[in-house]
Amino acid sequence: MDHATPSLPTALLLGPFAGGPHGAWVILHLVAVAGLTVLTQVGGLVYWVAVGAARAAGRGWLVVPVFLVLYGVVSAAVLPVAAPAAGRVPLPCLSGLNLEPASPLFCLLNRHYVRPKVAEVAFDVAGDLARQFPGTRVAFLDGAFPFLDAFPILPHLTHNDGRKLDLALFYEGRAAGGAWPLGYLAFAPGAAVAGEACPEAGWRRWDAAWLQPLFADAVLDQARTAALVRALARHPDVGRVFFDGRLTWALGLDGEARIGRAGCHAARHDDHVHFRLR
Ligand SMILES: [Zn+2]
Q: What is the pTM of this model?
């Protein structure tokens, strides 16, 4: 060993910088810290601590296992208790309820935190849908991270304060919302209903054309999708619903006052519906 092993408290504080020069490893660890912070908020901090713990133990290979255990404990036991103090609650991560994550990934990455009122709206709407279409489960996508209003949840520009939530659209033959586990970017079924028409699309409009063959067999469930968007637009605690302009028209929702129509210069909203609190 070419340098002294640091004490545990020092190592936890210094993270990738603990225990003397580590050359390229420092940069790699810092990239991991930055990436995990952007993706999961607390993951970067947990990784920093895991690197420090591994350095204190003098065993570099411990970084990943220590990170996984710590991140699991923090996500499952610490955040659900700590976030309510910051005004946010986790949406339910188990499947089988009226409301569930489109995939476990949204919970694993801690992107399922919202203001309690948003959770109420989501449960109300899910209950409404389940009454109209028995067996139907509403699937949520990105909400917000557990803490800090100034911390955006990328790539969204507005999901920073826990007042917004995205819900998946419904597809024929699937009880739960969503065409695939990531929920977003399934545009092909909507295009079949409302047609493609954006000659001058803005930079925020991602078409992900390369991905669309994956959804060639997915058919938008128009009745359930319309009922979902309508239930959101009519909920007393909802201020605004963002949905694709052409789908709004195609699904007969143009009379709903609170639906904002995402045009060609906004992110596409024909793969999910977004709402925010009043
Ligand atoms: Zn959104």
A: 0.90
